[in-house]
Amino acid sequence: MSDQTDGNVIDIEDGDQGAIAHIPVRTGGRPYEVQLGDGVLDRVGEIVRARTRATSVALITDECVAELYGARVEAALSAAGVAVTMVTVPAGEASKDWAVAGAVLEELAAARLDRTAAVVALGGGVVGDLAGFCAAVYLRGIPFVQVPTTLLAQVDSSVGGKTGVDLPQGKNLAGSFWQPVAVLADTTTLATLPVGEWRSGLAEVAKAAFLDSERFVSALEAAVVGGEVVRDGARTHAIVADSILFKARIIASDEREAGDRELLNYGHTFGHALEK
Question: How far apart are CA 190 and CA 209, in angstroms?
C-alpha cells in the first residue's frame, strides 16, 4: 500500500514488527530510499547485497553502538553471505577527525577491501559523517549504507549525502557529497537513547517542522505530553517520517546546497561558531 504526503508517495510495507515506510530520496545522480520502521536493522545484509552486490564490507561504528547493536548487524550481514571487517572508533565528536579518518582508511586497506566492497555506517551523526567520508575517498569512492541509530541521525545527517570530518580550524571543513545507496532507520534503536540525545534530535525535528508546514508543527505539538514529546512507536515513527520527507524534498531540488538547501543550515552556522 502507499501513502500520499505533500506530493510524495511513500510505500508502506507490513513488516514482521509493524509497518515499514519506504521513502524515496531523489537525487540527480543516485536516487535511493530510506526504509523506516521497527526491525529494519536486521535487513542490512539483504540491502547490501541488493544495492551494492558487495560480498565484503567495512562495518564502521563507535564503541557504545558496537556494544548495543554491533553483533546483531554483523550477524545480519554474515547471514547474507557478506564478510565483515569491524572498525570501531571512540564515541563522540572527537572521532570526527582527520587523523581518525586516516586510521579508518588504513584499516580498510589492511583488510584488502577493493572496489567491489562497501561501507556500512552504524551509529549517530559522527559515525555516519566519518564513515561516509571514508567511503567517498577510499579507492575514489565505494558504496555505503547508512544505518542511523540516533534521532538526530535518522531525521537529518543520514539523509542527503553530506559527509566530512572536522579540522582544528572548524567543523566539517573536509568533506564530500557522497550519497548512500540506502538508509535503514530502525526506530527501535531510539529506545536506548539518553534523554539528552533524544532532545538533541527533537531540536532538529522542530527546525524541520517550522521550515516545512503548519501541519507538521501541529503534529509535533500533538505528540507533546507533560512538556515532553512522547517517545512511543507510532508518534516517533510519524515525526521521523515527516522530517525525512521534508529533507528529501529539499534535496531533490538542491542536492549540493546551491540554493534552497541552505535553509537546512538554519541555526547550524551560529551553533558551530558557539561550539568552537
Answer: 20
Beta bridge partners of 191: none
Q: How many CB atoms lie within 10 A of CB 268?
A: 14
Contact between 130 and 95 under an 8 Å Cβ cutoff? The reply is: yes
How far is the CA of 159 from the CAs of 48, 146, 207, 219, in angstroms?
Answer: 17, 8, 16, 22
Express each pLDDT in 49-71 by its tens digit: 999 989 999 999 999 999 999 99
For residue range 146-157, list pLDDT tens digits in order. 999 999 999 999
Residue 58 in grid coordinates: 567495512
Q: Where are the alpha helices (DSSP H) in the chain?
A: 44-51, 63-65, 71-79, 98-110, 125-137, 151-152, 195-212, 214-222, 233-253, 268-275
The secondary structure of 56-100 as a DSSP string is EEEEEEEHHHIIIIIHHHHHHHHHTT-EEEEEEE-SSGGGSBHHH
The pTM of this model reads: 0.90
Cβ within 8 Å of residue 66, ≥6 positions away = 86, 88, 122
User: Residue 174: which pLDDT band, with cuts at 50, 70 and 90?
Assistant: very high
Beta bridge partners of 121: 60, 146
